[in-house]
Amino acid sequence: QRNIADNKLDYRDHTAKIGVDGAQKFDYAGTLSARLNYMFSSFNYPTVYEKGFSQNVNNVDFGMAWRSEPGRFEYYAALDYGYFKFGKPDVDFTKAMSENYGDFSLGGRFALGAATHIGADVNVEFVNDSEAEAFGLRSTAANLCVTPYFKASGAKYNVKIGVNVGHAFNRGTSTYVAPDVKLEWMPASQFTVYVGADGGARLNTAAMLFGENHLINPSQSYETTRKKIGVDGGFLIGPFAGASIKAWGSYATFSRQLMPELCENDRGEYTGVYMASYDFKSINYGIMFSYATTKGISPHGYTLLGAARDIYANGDGIALNDLADNE
């Protein structure tokens, strides 16, 4: 494959990560956990007109958390910090971006009964990077969010009713109030219906975006994204003799949502990719039919396996190899 200048495009990406984590449980008190990770990535940027250039990234992140022993009142506190740095700048910039980021979370809940709770979560996240002013942004941004909620669960239902109240500082300053609601109804072991609504704000750190796409601009800073409102719903029928049907739909409105665009230099040449902010609406819907043999797995276990796999793989459905005749 070649670009417009007839330069051969060569894609290379080598990423290594090393880390350590541990936890210590204190009887009748709680559990203290901590982690430390380091990542190094070496890769190249193919471009439209140029031969491209090599790049490297260093990323260190640290976190620790305390969670109380389960009881009528439970609480937790967590602190995370990271440092992220590109080795080289974009071809049209003089400096590569370096970034400090982190968040602090604190929360607790009180049991009203065996399966009902009231609680609240508080989260503060921040980012500070070296190249924000070159994009007309302040070097430091933060987001504070408080979420009070009520939870209840039973044999045929799960309910969470909460509200996100927060304020985003700099890079799109705004105060927001948005729902945090999730309702699930399971009238039968092989039928589930759910609806939900959410919203809030999110800091766009380079570390987070790099985890999704290595070919982001190494000199760019980013505005804060606001999810004004999002609603979703769907149902799952099955499995019946290994067959199941899942249908879903969602609607959301965003402001300053990042989308990829080609980067144009002073000569009118497109030299790479950067992320631009847009306001838009999103509609997503679909239906899926799946089949797998469920040897030795109950319908409830099948549903739990599907949920766990979706969380782990960020995907939908259950692959045949997950279930078929496995011990």
Structural description of this entry:
The protein is mainly β and 327 residues long. 8% of the residues lie in helices and 62% in strands. The protein contains three helices and 13 strands; from the N terminus they run ββββββββββαβββαα. Strands 1-2-3-4-5-6-7-8-9-10-11-12-13 form a 13-stranded antiparallel sheet. The longest helix is centred in the C-terminal third of the chain and has 15 residues, at 299-313. The protein is globular and about 65 Å long. It starts with 12 loop residues before the first strand and ends with a helix. The model is unreliable at 314-327 (pLDDT under 50).
Instruction: Describe the global form.
Output: globular
- The portion of residues assigned to helices is under 10%
Q: Report the structural category.
A: mainly beta
Give the strand tally.
13
What is the strand arrangement across the widest sheet?
1-2-3-4-5-6-7-8-9-10-11-12-13
Beta-strand portion reads over 45%
> How large is the radius of gyration?
23 Å
Give the low-pLDDT segments.
314-327
Give the overall pLDDT as a whole number: 84
Number of helices: 3
Distance between the termini: 45 Å
How would you spell out the order of helices and strands? EEEEEEEEEEHEEEHH
Largest sheet: 13 strands, antiparallel
